[in-house]
User: Fold these one by one.
Assistant:
Number 1:
Amino acid sequence: MKITLQPVTAANWRELIKLKVRDDQAHFVASNVHSIAESQFGFEDEGHWNISPFGIYADNEAVGFLMYATNLGHSRIQVFIQRLMVDEKFQGKGYGRQAMQVMLGTIRGEERIRNVAISYEPDNRSAKSLYASLGFKETGEMAGDELLAVLNLR
Ligand SMILES: CC(C)(COP(=O)(O)OP(=O)(O)OC[C@H]1O[C@@H](n2cnc3c(N)ncnc32)[C@H](O)[C@@H]1OP(=O)(O)O)[C@@H](O)C(=O)NCCC(=O)NCCS
C-alpha cells in the first residue's frame, strides 16, 4: 500500500469532502469542506501564509486529508500543520503516520524551513502520541485552546 499526498483539485474535492472522522472525534478537527474553503479563501488572521491542502491516498483510494500553511519568511515557525484526519474506516492502519512522514520528507529539503508546528486539543491522545513519536515537542504555549508542539528540523 503506497501512501501519497495529492493536491486538492477540481477533480478530487468531492471525494475528499465525503471523508469523516468518528462522531466522538468530530470536535478535534474541522470538516474537510470547511478546510478546503479556508484553503481557498484564507483565514482572517492569515498574514502571508501559503495554504496547501492535500488528500491522503492509499494507492488510489482517498483515505484522509492533510493541510499545512507555509511562510518561509517567518522568524520562528515556517510551516504550520493545520489539519490532519483519516476517515473512520481507515484509522489505525498507519496511514496518518505515513502521511505525516511523507509531508515532513517533502519539506525537509527546503533549507529555510527550520521549525514545523502543530496544535491539538489537550484530550486528543491519539494525536498527541503520534506527533510526539515524530519528534514534536510541546512548548508549553497554547494556540487558542490547543497545545502547541514544535518539530525542529535544523
Ligand atoms: C489522529 C489520526 C489522524 C491518526 O491517524 P491513524 O491513521 O488512525 O493513525 P496511525 O494508524 O497512523 O497511528 C499513528 C499513531 O497514532 C497514535 N494513535 C492512533 N490511534 C490511537 C489510539 N486509538 N490511541 C492512542 N494513540 C493512537 C499512535 O501513536 C500511533 O502510533 P503506533 O501505531 O506506532 O502506536 C486519526 O486518528 C484521526 O483522524 N483522528 C481524528 C481527527 C484528529 O484528531 N486529527 C488530529 C487533529 S490535531
Note: The pocket of coenzyme A is lined by residues 21, 25, 28-29, 84-86, 91-97, 120, 124-127, 129-130, 133 (CB under 6 Å).
Number 2:
Amino acid sequence: MAAGVMGAGTMSLGGFGIYAHWPYCSAICPYCDFNVRRDRGGDHSALLEAIIADLAGHAARIETRGATSLFVGGGTPSLMAAGDVARLIAAARDLFELRDDAEITLECNPEDRARFADLQAAGVTRFSLGLQALRGAGLLFLGRRHSVREGLAAVEAATATGARISIDLIYGRDGQSPEDWRAELAEALALGIEHLSAYQLTIEAGTPFARAVARGRMRVADSDRSADLYAATQETCAAAGFEGYEISNHARGAAAQSRHNLVYWRGGDWVGVGPGAHGRIAMGGVRTATRAHADPLAYTRAVAETGVGWESAEALDNAAIAQEIVLMGLRLREGVDRRRWAALTGGPDAAQLDGFIAHGLVIATEDTIRLTEAGRPVADRIAAALLG
Ligand SMILES: C[S@@+](CC[C@H](N)C(=O)[O-])C[C@H]1O[C@@H](n2cnc3c(N)ncnc32)[C@H](O)[C@@H]1O
Ligand code: SF4
C-alpha cells in the first residue's frame, strides 16, 4: 500500500479505512448522542453529493491509497437508497483504490430489513445490525421502534444475502441482572452471526436518559453491577466461541474481526467524510486529525466552498499520537505496538509499568504492551497512568 510519508506518527499499519457518516434516523433514541438528525422525509441528495465531493477533496490532498475498508455509519445509513450506497462505493474505488476484497460495512436498523438484499447487491459485504436487545422490555426501555421478532427477522434477511453479520447489543439496562443478560446474550450468539459489539449503556449528557437519571426516574448500574455484567459478557462470549478481541467486541475467529475498526484501534489512517466525521490522515507526512462540520447544511456548504467538509484539521504532535494509540491499543487483546510508542515519546512510564506487571494487570514484551483479563475492565485508568 502506498502511503504519504511513513513514520511513527503516520501509519497505515493494519489497513487504511474510509468512514462515511449518514446522520439521518427515523426517530432519535433517548440514549443516543451520536451526530444524528430526525429524517423528516426530505431530499438528501445534496448531502450525498457533498460526501462524494469531500472524498474527492481528500484524495486531492493526501497520497494514501489502497483502502481496505469502507464503513458507512450513522445515524441510519440503511435509510439510504441502494443506488446511493453504490455511488459512494464507486467513488471510494475510483478515488482511493478501494480494494476488490475490501470490507464494506453498513450500519442498519432492523426496520430496514426489506432493503438488505438491494444493499448487498450495491456492494455491502458486512451488515452491522442495531438489534440492541432480544427482550421486548429491553427494546421498550431503550425506546426502540422494532420488536424482538423484527430484530430476528433482520438477522434472517441479512443472512440470506450471504454478507457478513455483526450485531450491536446494549447491556446494563434498567434492572437487568447478570443472569438475565447471560441468557439473552447466549441466544444472540446462537443466531449464526460472526461478530458482536456489546456496549454497556452509557448515560450521555444532554440526552433524555441523562435527564431521567438526574430526576431519579432511571437507575444506572453501579460499578459492582457493571463489573459483573462485563464479566458475564466475556464468559458467555468465550463459551460460545467468540473471542473478545477488543473490550466491547467479540468475533468468531480472526477473519470475523472488524477490519475497519482495527484501523482505529491500531492507530492507522482513515479518511472521515460526512457530517461530524473524524479522520486521521497523513498530510505532508504529518498525522492530522480532521473533524467535519456536524450540521449537514454547514457541512454541505463547507465542501462547496473549500472542497472538504472540515471544521478543523489539526496536526498532531508525538504526545497526542502516543496518547491515542495507547488509549485505543490497550483496548485490544493484542495490545499496543511498544516500538511505535517508544519512537513517539520514549514509551511507558517505567515505574508504573513495573507496578502493573507486578499486580498482574499488564503483560509487556519487547514488541507489545497488553492487558491481562484483570486489567481490561480498567483499561482507561491503566492507559492514563502509563502515559504519565
Ligand atoms: C451510531 S449507532 C448506529 C446504529 C443504528 N442506527 C442503530 O441504532 O441500530 C451505533 C451503536 O452505538 C450503540 N450506542 C449508541 N448510544 C449508546 C449508549 N448511550 N450506550 C451504549 N451504546 C450506545 C448502539 O449499540 C448502536 O447500535
Ligand atoms: S441509536 Fe441508532 S437509530 Fe437511534 S438515534 Fe442513535 S443512530 Fe439513530
Note: Residues 1-6 have pLDDT under 50 and may be disordered.
